[in-house]
Amino acid sequence: MGRKEAIARSVVRAITRRRPTQGRSANRLGRILALFSAFFSLYQLPLHKIRPVEFQNIRSEHWNVNDDDYVAAFLNEERDGAALRAMGDMGFSGSTFFSTWNQQYLVKSIPRHFEHSFFENDLVEPYLAYMAQQPTSLLVRICEFLGCTDRALGRTLRMAPSHHIVMENIMYGSEKAEDGWEHWDLKPTSYFYPERDIADGRLTSDATKDQLADEFHDKIVLSDKDAKAFVAALERDTKFLADHNAVDYSLFLVRIKSEDPVAATEPGPSNTEGADAVPQNPPSVPPLPPSWRTGVPSSDGKHIFRASILDFFWAKHKIQPMLMTLLIKTWDLITGHGPMSITTTPQEYRERFLKMCLEMIEVKDDA
After folding, report:
1. What is the pTM of this model?
2. Which residue, 200, 250, 350, 351, could crosslink 238 as a Cys pair with Cβ 3.0–4.6 Å?
3. 3-state DSSP assignment of residue 9
4. Shortest CA distance to 51 belongs to which of 103, 113, 128?
5. What are the pLDDT digits (tens) for 87-99?
6. What distance in Å separates the CA atoms of residue 348 and residue 238, rounded to the nearest whole number?
7. Residues in a beta bridge with 107
8. Which domains does the chain have, with CATH numbers?
9. Within the chain, where are the H helices?
10. Per residue in 253-262, pLDDT tens?
C-alpha cells in the first residue's frame, strides 16, 4: 500500500468508525494487538476525532448536514481509502489533499505542529462559536478535525501527517462541467516573497514559484447590494482572524462562466450550466440564497462567483512564526525588502488583505 493510500485509509476509518461496544473494549488481547500495530505504523496512523461533539453539533444544528449523508461521502462500494481521491502534495507546508468521491468535502493535512496546535488550543473553540453566529461567514466550513496522539513510528519520524481537517469544497460541481470554471488562491502580493524577489526569482524553480499566491487580473462585477454584503462579511471575518493573531490566510475565488446571462441575473435557482452546478445538498446549502459559498451572480450576468477564506493556521504568537519573524526582520535591516505575509502583524495583514479584495470589486447595477 502506498503512502497516500494509507493516509486516506486512516482518515476514512477515523470518520466512519463507530464507538466500540463494551464487549469489544473489554477484549484485552485485541487492544494490545491494535496498539502494537499502531506503534509500528508508518503512514496509516491511528487518528481520532478532536471535539467530535462540537463539530457534530455545528454540522447538524447550524449547517443542516445529515450525519448519515456526511459519513456516506467517505464510503463507497470499495473499502477504506478508496472513497478518497488524492489531489497531490500542495504548497510549502507539505500538506496532502484528498477529495471525497462525491466532491463535497476536501481533506487537508496540517503537518506542522505550530499550525495544528494553534487551531486545537487557541482557535477551534472561538471558531465554532463564531461560525454558529455568522451563517454568511466566508471562512471555510471545517466539518471535522482529526489528530493522532498515540505513539507511532510514522508520527515520530514525520512520515505521515498527524492532523487533518475536513472542509467543504466550493469547487463542488466542477467535475460535471466540461469547462467554464476558473479559480484563484489570492493573497496580497505586495509582501516580500524570497522565492520571487531574491535575484528576481532566478534561484528558485518555476514549480516552486507556481505555488505562490495567484493574481486576479479582472473584476468581480457586483450589484451595490451584493458588493456591500461581500465587503461586510470580509470585514467581520478578517477582524475575527486578526483578533486571534492569524495571518497569511487567503481568499479562494471561483468564477463560473454563465451560458445564459439573463437567467444568471434573475433571483432564485438559475437554468445556466454554472448554476446547475450549485449544490443542493449539505454542507453547501446556502443560509439564504444567493451565497458566496454556492454562487453569487455577477450583475452583468456573465459569471457566477464563489469565495471562501482559507488557511488561517499561521499564528504570530507560536514559536516558529516568532523565530521566522526575527529572521526576516534581521534580513530586512540588510536588504530593505520589507515584511513577509507570515511575519507582518495581524492588523497590517488584514488591512492589505482587505485592500486587495476591495480593488477586485466593481459595482455595476442594472440600468
Report:
1. 0.80
2. 350
3. helix
4. 128
5. 865 444 457 899 9
6. 11
7. 98, 166
8. 3-169 (3.30.800.10), 175-363 (3.30.810.10)
9. 3-16, 22-25, 28-39, 52-57, 67-72, 113-118, 124-133, 153-156, 194-197, 206-209, 224-243, 261-265, 273-276, 319-335, 346-360
10. 999 998 755 4
